[in-house]
Amino acid sequence: MKLSRSNRVNPPKLNLSLKNRFWLFQIVVVLIILSGIFIIASLSGVIADLSENPYYDAAADLEYIESELSAKCLAVSNSTVELAEKTNNSIKKQLQTKGIKPADLKKHPELLEEILSSEVEKSCFIMEKAGVTGVFVFLDATVNPQLERANDSKAGFYIVDMNHDPVPYTNQQLFLLYGPVDLARSNNMHLHTQWELELDISPDAPKRRRDMFRMPFDAALSNNVDDVYYLGYWNPLFTPAENTDKVITYSVPLLDDNGYPYGVCGLEITKTGFETMLSLKSSHEFEREVLLYSIRTDAGIDMESALISGTNSSWLMNGDSKYLRASSPSNKNSLNEYFFNETAKTRILGLDMDVRLYPGKSVFKDTQWALATLIPRSDVTSKTARLTYAIVFLVLLLAASIIITFFSSKYCISPLMEAISKIKQNESQEKTNISEIDDLIEYLMARAEPAVAIDRSNRFLTARNAKKANKEEPSPDENDLTPEQIQLFEEQLKTLTRAERRIFDLYIEGYDAKEICNMLYISINTIKTHNRRIYTKMNVSSRVELLKYCHKLMGKI
Amino acid sequence: MFSLITFGLDKLHSFFFLSKHCVAHSRKHAFSQAQGHYHKDRTRRRSNRSGTRLLSFKPLLIIIPMLMFALSSCGSQLPRLNRDKPVRINIWHHYLGEQKVSFDNLVAEFNSTIGADSGITVKAFSMDNTGDIHSKLLASANREPGSSDFPEMATAYPSTAYTLYNMGKLIPLDKYMTEEEFSGYIPSFIEEGRLTEDSGCVIFPIAKSTETLYINYTFYKQFLDEYNRANPSKQLNEEMLKTFEGILETAAAYYEWTDAKTPDIPNDGKALYGCDAASNYAVISYKQLGSDFFIVNKDNSGEIDLNDPAMNKVWNSYVVPMIKGHYGAYSFYRSEDTQTGDLLMYTGSTAGASFFPKAVSFPDNTKYDIELKVMPYPSFEKGEKIAVQQGAGVIISKSTPEKEYASVIFLKWLTEPERNIDFVMKTGYLPVTNEAIRILQQKLPEYKSGAINENVAKVLECTLEMMESYELYTYKPFEASDDIRYSFENKLISFTEASRKEFVESLPGDVSVDTFANEYITDELFDQFLTEVRHEIIKVK
Questions:
Q1: Which residues of A touch B333 (CB under 8 A)?
Q2: What is the pLDDT of residues A256-293, one digit of tens each?
């Protein structure tokens, strides 16, 4: 069926009032601004940051740090093996020239200082090359076998580079922690404040300090392994002497041709050095996030040996608790919960993983080291809360915008609406102080004026004639004007310019604006400008009011 | 940055608040004025009201916000710290051994208490000694390749602080501390931190020290007893250790006594005494003898007064016995020489109390426990009782207001009597506040019984006595004072070492040390020393 033109259905037009249109326009503007904020926040990653599951960040961090740590530890173990090989060859060669076997070194204490002296330079070189903070070589011998504690006293040297980290320095600052005094004096080293001549591995000495020597040495004794790489031992955090920095060491045995150990050598990394290494790699999404590196036992992660790195790790300290344990997460992609005491409420979230330190064939392959990233539960909770707050804030902002725009549109449109209403009721005497509306009212009044003007002019002339006849008959509204106002009007007349006075006079004579334009050869805009000035100076709002004053004034005359 | 913005916004807010307030007030005032004239003069009111009324408020609109801004700037507008976003501040220090352990423990305590509550995390880095920190700080300040970022805090001597202050790197503590707070500290320590007349206090005194005489009393007593038994006509006593002349005489006797222990080896006697800081020895010797080591010119340049008779005294009382082997210096610190049995006593910093060995180890791996005796710093027989006042204070670098403020909070916490006494009792440093000294003087016996390190308690007891009877002296830094001092010290050490080496190599086996010394140590050698010192100083100037 073909519709006729008259029958065609027009799309419905939005029948909105001026106020509602303006409101709608403002809402659109607000929505555009809010969308812009949202897009900028999305592009800059703020939204992603707030909404991201911390598990993924922690997992990625851990994986990266573990690989870096493993690589660094592998480099240290390789350097230690290199040190062992070079030291071994050098000592064997020295002893060979004297016709002594390494196993018989114990019987020749007089040779110890000489042998050790020749190892210092290359040991320091390997320490520097490996980028670590200390190097040591201890032999299964003592300078004085006659002493009661001779079996537990090991001659050797332990050199510490005190200027390794964190500040790069052009010169090493080497200190002798263990070893003969002349070793320090002849190699331009200082004696460490905790210096000792020999390493004490008696049962009275701290266990970890003994382990530095005992573990690889005993492993070589009890295992038929020739490759020192598989006999190397990572000693967890300990102090190599009283009141020194805590360190982690890697030591390997020195083996003679029969695979029999006659000493131990190794490298150390200080706690500070390790912390620097760890903190550089961490992305630290959370301010109080810490990295923990320690050995893992059946009871949990050993806190006594733990190396903790982070800008603020004080929250993790837990008095006497020795082990940190983890509970499995409820969700696969959630952080683990950690606790020191099963009865205590857990306040720690995080992840941990094993660090590959030992090769598969290592004697110590069962020793597990763990790397963990830990965050206070409150920090994770507050991050989730921040996302909620952000969403609530945006919704509230939107609601507030709608309400504000409602009132603002009403406020902005109200003068127009009032003006229209007054025009409708023919009450357009007062100014609105909005130039466009005042102009419109003026325009509308001007259109309605000719009749009024003729009428007024006639009345003016009638009044003038009446005056001549001494019959004063004021117009009905002239009575509103007080003598003071009339006097003021009279005074203000003097302030008019020549051009304004000329136009003023023509108005009095009954001409309208168009006629004055033609008479004076000026545009309607010029007339309007003069009108505004005249009205302002005479303090009237329209020509009608002006004429009212004139009429009264003429009557007075 | 955030707080700067907040600070700026606060200012703007107050400015606009006041402006709006004034405008509103002027409008309100104008309105009420106009009410009375409304019917009389609507025209005039309309055209003039805002102009005339606002005109009278215009100066207020400008002046009041400016005054408020200025007043708020003058007031104690301290930066705001946020515990959820802790400020991290690094401190480079020179503490080693037990000092480092004590300091690290205090830092850890701060981080877990006040620091955690107020949003401050302090990270401490040990830099071995102040000499190294000096080099590293200058390298960082000059942004030399490979240097680290300048730390927020560092321990430094006045000379280092003076150099860095002139480079515009440091802030005066007066920025964040009131006069009342300063008055709690020992005035001379605060005064030492005022580098120039207008610098303010640039060095925060956290630990000061002086020098005392450390004696391996076990070995010394053994020597004294044996020597006096063998030499009834030439008796030695402990009182002799109060003067440098007495020490010199004891050292000669000790050399002779130890030399006699090995009759087969001639002239292998041992040294009795050494000093940790040779330049301190010279500076204090001058002062004790009534002279000044440095001559400081009006342009703040300076030099060593080498022509003063006190230099002869330094030569005869230090260099000569060093060449003869009566005094010695073999390792970096004399405490190390005492630990190896190479020296019996030394003058060294009270801050080194914890480094005094508990045993002497000999090359044959034999060990002997020893007892420490502490005596006041020796003086010359005709000299004043003067000892050095030293100990690096802490300087604070220019950074953000939050970091500067956080640094001051940490330092004030660190020097509260409780912490100050704890640190002092573990390290041998002097307390820095009047209150800490008062408590320490009252409760020292109590503290001594519970002291972790008995030697530190002994040193502290002696030091408190010295603070009453000695003048503690420090010189004001001047242009290159540090370099001049180190040049002198290096030359003194190297000249002494070289001369000693030459002396030993030239010493015939059948001639006694004293006889050969009369030939070797001449006025020409002294002049040569002075000439070499002058050349070294010219180089650094």
A1: 190-191, 193
A2: 988 999 999 999 998 877 776 666 555 556 777 888 88
